[in-house]
Design a protein that fits this description.
The protein is an alpha/beta fold. It has a single domain, classed as 3-Layer(aba) Sandwich (Rossmann fold). It is built from nine helices and seven strands; from the N terminus they run E-H-E-H-E-H-E-H-E-H-H-E-H-H-H-E.
Length: 256
C-alpha cells in the first residue's frame, strides 16, 4: 500500500457495486476510511465490511432525497469527526431511448439521481469540506462530451455534470476545495450490462465495446478507480475543474 489517501475520510455514493465498489476497495487500500452508501442498507454494510482492516461505514441512502443525504453526512461526521472528500458516483442509466421515447418520469428520475444528488451532497457536505480543504469528485461519462445514440436523457445528465464540475471548481477554489470529474467510456459494470441488454442487438455489444476503445478492449472498473485515487490524493493538489478521460482513447474517434 502506497498510502496516497492515508487518514482521509471519503464519502462515496453508489459505492456497493460496479465502479463505486472498485473505488471503495482502492481508497481503502490507499489508507482512507470509506463511508459508502447505496439505497439498500444491508448491501451497503456488507460492501463496507468487505473492505478489510480500517474504519469503514456502510449507509443506506437514496441520494435523490435531500433529507437522507443530510442524515448520511451527519452520521459520517459523528463517526469520523471530519470529511475530506465526496465522490459522487451514484447513477442510473435507464432508459436507453431517444428523447421523444423517454417518459417524463424517466427523465425526472435520471436527473434526480445523476445530477441533483450532487447538489444534495455538496449542500450538506460543503462546510466540512471547507474545514478540511477537501475535494469533490464526480463520476461523469464520455457521453457527456460526445453524446450517445438512443441514450439522450442519460447523456444530458452527464453533459450537465461536466459543466457543473467546472462551475463548482471556480466557486470553491477560494475555499481550497478542488472539484474534478472522471469520464469513462465503456466499463464492464452491472449498469453497462443492463444497458447492453436493452440494445437492438445485445449479442453484438461486447465486440462493439471492445472495438470503440483504440487500446482494444472494454475494461473493468479498476482502471477508473486508479484514476480516482489520483484525483482525490495530494498528487493532484493543483488539479481542479478537470474532466479526466479514462477511455482507452475512445474520444479520438471510433474505429468503425
Amino acid at each position: 500500500m502506497s498510502g496516497l489517501l492515508d487518514g482521509k475520510i471519503v464519502f462515496l455514493t453508489g459505492g456497493s457495486a460496479g465502479i463505486g465498489f472498485e473505488c471503495a476497495k482502492a481508497y481503502a487500500r490507499e489508507g482512507a476510511s470509506v463511508a459508502l452508501c447505496c439505497p439498500d442498507t444491508d448491501e451497503a454494510r456488507k460492501a463496507a465490511s468487505s473492505l478489510g482492516a480500517g474504519r469503514h461505514m456502510g449507509l443506506g441512502c437514496d441520494v435523490s432525497d435531500g433529507d437522507q443525504v443530510a442524515s448520511a453526512v451527519e452520521n459520517i461526521l459523528s463517526a469520523f469527526g471530519r470529511l475530506d472528500a465526496i465522490h459522487n458516483n451514484a447513477g442510473i442509466a435507464t432508459p436507453s431511448s431517444a428523447l421523444h421515447d423517454t417518459s417524463p418520469e424517466e427523465w425526472d428520475r435520471l436527473f434526480q439521481v445523476n445530477l441533483k444528488s450532487v447538489y444534495w451532497t455538496t449542500k450538506h457536505g460543503f462546510e466540512a469540506l471547507k474545514t478540511s480543504r477537501g475535494c469533490i469528485l464526480n463520476t461523469s461519462s464520455l457521453v457527456g462530451e460526445i453524446g450517445q445514440e438512443i441514450h439522450a436523457a442519460y447523456s444530458a445528465t452527464k453533459g450537465a455534470m461536466n459543466a457543473l464540475t467546472k462551475s463548482m471548481a471556480l466557486d470553491y477554489a477560494k475555499h481550497g476545495i478542488r472539484v474534478n470529474a472522471v469520464c469513462p467510456a465503456g466499463i464492464w459494470t452491472p449498469m453497462l450490462r443492463q444497458w447492453a441488454s436493452e440494445q437492438p442487438d445485445p449479442a453484438a455489444i461486447g465486440r462493439y465495446l471492445d472495438e470503440i476503445h483504440p487500446l482494444g478492449f472494454c475494461p473493468e472498473g479498476d482502471v477508473i478507480a486508479e484514476a480516482c485515487v489520483y484525483l482525490l490524493s495530494d498528487k493532484a493538489r493543483f488539479v481542479t475543474g478537470h474532466l479526466m478521460h479514462v477511455t482507452g482513447g475512445a474520444e479520438l474517434g471510433y474505429k468503425r
